[in-house]
Amino acid sequence: MSCKLDKSDMVAVEAHEVSYRYPDGTVGVRRASICVRSGERVVILGPNGSGKSTLLMLLDGLLQPESGYVKIFGVRLTKRNARMLRRNIGYVFQDADDMLFCATVREDLEYGPAQLDIPREEALERIKELTELFSLDEVLEKPPFRLSGGEKKRAAIAAVLSVRPRILLVDEPTANMDAESKNTLISFLNFLNAEHKITLITTTQDVEIAPQLATRIYIMGRNKETVAEGSVKEMLTDEKLLEANGLEAPCIVRLFKKLGYKNCPLTIEEAFSALSK
Amino acid sequence: MREILEASLKEITKLLRDFLVTESIASQKGVLQSIDARVKLVSLFILVFFVAISDSPPISFFIIFLSFLLAVLSKIPLRAYAARVTLIPAFSFVVVLPWAFLTEGAPLLNLPLGLKITHEGMFYVTNFTARVFACVSLLVLLILTTRFSSLLSAMRALRLPSGFVSVLAIAYRYMFLFLNEVYRLLVARESRTFKHEKLRKTWRLGGETLGVFFLRALERGERVHLAAVARGYSAEVKTYTRETQLKPKDFLFLLLSLLLSATVILHGVRI
Ligand SMILES: Nc1ncnc2c1ncn2[C@@H]1O[C@H](COP(=O)(O)OP(=O)(O)OP(=O)(O)O)[C@@H](O)[C@H]1O
Ligand SMILES: [Mg+2]
């Protein structure tokens, strides 16, 4: 798979056949390619161990690919320019505990801006804004490990947003979250994308939330390759493709397939209007 | 025995971990919290130095008394403070206790088996323990009332070698991380332990736990490092300095502690 977007589109992130092998010999990803336009919302969908997290690390220049390359806004990522290019990218790790390593949540929010030499006044202004947006005021002075899972996730995302990235990589945004936190987080990510034009790349193995997070999906399979790419509808209604890669079509799709529908709905609303016809 | 071992391991880990992050006290409004970190660092370290070379239990007791007074004025819960300052002196007491018997001198108390506690020995033990107690009390005051980040900025402002400060910053972060990891491991293990095991088995399991812990800590350390890099970390950790002009009360504090140091030298240090 290669980048087949229009020339006119500004490409925010491009990975071309990147491969990575961990020091112990395990293959992390194998010839994975993705291409994301500026302002797009894309989900990388794949079962456990299919290399989603590894791919994100490669996109952020935290790991160097064995072969292939990554380009950020058209500039090829190398070891030397990674630090500079990374200013554009916010990366929320799968495990929020990895990201919150300061003594208090406030210090964690200050960490990014301080490393990038953003003036203190401006950083404080941003942090105030984010604290409100994420309802973090009550936990601001707490040590991160005393937070609940959902609070940790919110704090981790806020910590990343305090440097105002243009691209946001979120690894498993909704893992271990209750329904309400999940919905709040999803609408918040979508708000960032719509209002601040932040390019949103998320990973998940949850086919039910993928339609809410993206307009386009890349599927990664057990073999750790990007095996397919397409619109949410194309990808999530292709039962054969999903099953071949250790996934399953969303509930509604399976139901409507069974009912003999050709054009399967993806959301409850779509299903409702299809049924009331 | 097994429960005690396991439970105390867990408790100690938790205590140490929490000890490292008690910034809730540092963010309160008390006497010591309002003193500039640089001033606190300098004056308390001077004081600690002279107390450490002093040789007079009354002086040590006086310093301990002052420390507790300052703790109260700085809104440090006394129980928490006492718990933090007594551990190390208690340990050093146990270590030097034999000298009460071993030091030659006038007998204070005769015990069976020809053992005797001497005046000199007793003095040595009291003096040593009190001195450790006094030093620890002062240092704990500094740690509890100062944010770690302010402490680091203060060290930088005082031109301490930046390598040293960076190492300290990293050590602090990893220590916390490691302790957190041990704690989670112990809790996880406890939740899956259903029957009483023999002590020997507990020890063996303990060894395995330790091994697993090191692997996990390494793994996590690696990922945390990557997370820090993702957020712009390079060779040096930068923090926002809350640097401000020194206020009159900072100078007053410095003056008072210098006077106190002079008192310690005059009355306590044998030259
Ligand atoms: N630090 C590591 N050392 C060695 N192998 C690793 C390491 N991290 C991941 N792997 C291996 O690399 C492969 C891809 O892992 P990765 O974490 O990228 O998958 P993932 O799609 O994010 O999975 P999940 O959905 O469980 O998060 C797996 O086979 C995994 O075992
Ligand atoms: Mg993952």
Can you describe what's shown?
The complex is a heterodimer of chains A (277) and B (271). Chain A has helices at 52-59, 82-85, 96-99, 105-115, 120-133, 149-161, 179-196, 210-213, 232-236, 239-244, 251-258, 268-276; strands spanning 11-21, 27-37, 41-45, 67-72, 75-76, 89-92, 167-171, 199-204, 216-220, 226-231. Chain A has 277 residues and is of the alpha/beta class. In chain A, the strands form two sheets. A six-stranded mixed sheet of chain A has the order 6-7-8-3-9-10, sandwiched between helices. In chain A, strands 2-1-4-5 form a four-stranded antiparallel sheet, with helices on one face. In chain A, α4 packs across α5 and α4 (105-115) packs parallel to α6 (149-161). The longest helix of chain A has 18 residues, at 179-196. Chain A starts with 10 loop residues before the first strand and ends with a helix. Chain B has 271 residues and is mainly alpha-helical. Helices cover 74% and strands 3% of the residues of chain B. In chain B, strands 1-2 form a two-stranded antiparallel ribbon. In chain B, β1 (107-110) and β2 (116-118) form a beta hairpin. In chain B, α1 (2-20) runs antiparallel to α9 (162-191), α3 packs antiparallel against α7 and α9 (162-191) packs across α10. The termini of chain B are far apart. At the A-B interface, α3 and α4 of A face α9 and α10 of B. Residues 52-53, 94, 171 of chain A line the site of magnesium ion.
CATH topology grouping of chain A: Rossmann fold
Low-confidence stretches of chain B: none
CATH homology superfamily name of chain A:
P-loop containing nucleotide triphosphate hydrolases
How many domains of chain B? The number is 2
Task: Name the descriptors.
heterodimer; A: 277 residues; alpha/beta; six-stranded mixed β-sheet; four-stranded antiparallel β-sheet; 10 strands; globular; B: 271 residues; mainly alpha; 11 helices; 74% helix; flat; binds magnesium ion
What topology does this entry show?
The complex is a heterodimer of chains A (277) and B (271).
Chain A: E1 11-21, E2 27-37, E3 41-45, H1 52-59, E4 67-72, E5 75-76, H2 82-85, E6 89-92, H3 96-99, H4 105-115, H5 120-133, H6 149-161, E7 167-171, H7 179-196, E8 199-204, H8 210-213, E9 216-220, E10 226-231, H9 232-236, H10 239-244, H11 251-258, H12 268-276
Parallel strand pairs in A: 3-8, 3-9, 6-7, 7-8
Antiparallel strand pairs in A: 1-2, 1-4, 4-5, 9-10
Helix pairs in contact in A: 4-5, 4-6
Chain B: H1 2-20, H2 23-26, H3 37-53, H4 57-73, H5 78-96, H6 99-102, E1 107-110, E2 116-118, H7 119-145, H8 148-157, H9 162-191, H10 199-230, H11 248-268
Antiparallel strand pairs in B: 1-2
The complex binds adenosine-5'-triphosphate and magnesium ion.
